[in-house]
Amino acid sequence: MNLPQIYTNAMNRIDFFKRLFAGGAAAIAAKYTGTIMPEAKKDVYLESVYIAGFQYYNGAELEKGLKVNDILSLKRQAENPHDYFAVEVYSSEQKLGYLPRADNKIIARMMDQGMSMKAIIRKIEPDAPPYRRVKIRVYSEIGCSGFRSAELIVRQEVNSTRN
């Protein structure tokens, strides 16, 4: 039996709403039962800077192992006597230097509030002066939880059924 196009579209909408409500119900149930749902994360670009103090932390030796697009970790160092807002830059366990003092206040405050940060190497210039050798981009990882996660899951399922 061939149904008119309007009825087949209506059935697709019904399936969509079933999935939407099932996803929302799953998010609510997970919240109240203690179940952990996978959290969707998004990187938000904050700024682009050169690593400060690179020459003081074996930068020349470590530079050989660094590549563009390597992910670096950032650690807050509030007890630094020279800069209260100091943020260290690490590649694995090797300290590369700091975020420049002129650019670290907002990032340090965000880290103090518990926000997750990371950096990615954008450019390496071996012939440049040490304070302009490695340029990084700093990102904040923003998590989308609850209904937002459910919405993303539903969108992925709807898109996969269209393909």
How would you describe this structure in keywords?
globular, single chain, alpha+beta, 163 residues, 6-stranded antiparallel sheet
Describe this protein's structure.
The longest helix has 29 residues. A six-stranded antiparallel beta sheet has the order 1-6-5-2-3-4. About 10% of the residues have low confidence. It is an alpha+beta fold. It has four helices and six strands; from the N terminus they run H-E-H-E-E-E-H-E-E-H.
Outline of the structure:
The chain has 163 residues and is an alpha+beta fold. It has helices at 5-33, 59-63, 105-112, 147-162; strands spanning 40-50, 71-76, 87-91, 94-98, 116-124, 134-144.
Topology:
Elements: H1 5-33, E1 40-50, H2 59-63, E2 71-76, E3 87-91, E4 94-98, H3 105-112, E5 116-124, E6 134-144, H4 147-162
Helix pairs in contact: 1-4
Structural class: alpha+beta
Mean pLDDT, all residues: 77
Biggest β-sheet strands, sense, barrel: 6 strands, antiparallel
Instruction: Work out the helicity level.
Output: 25-40%
Task: Compute the CA-based radius of gyration.
Answer: 23 Å
* Spatial sequence of strands, sheet with the most strands: 1-6-5-2-3-4
| Helix-strand pattern | HEHEEEHEEH
* Overall body shape: globular
Kindly report how far apart the N and C termini lie: 25 Å
Q: Return residue spans where pLDDT drops below 50 for at least 5 consecutive residues.
A: 5-11, 146-154
Query: Helix count, per DSSP?
Result: 4
Could you tell me the strand content as a percent range? 25-35%
Query: Number of DSSP strands?
Result: 6
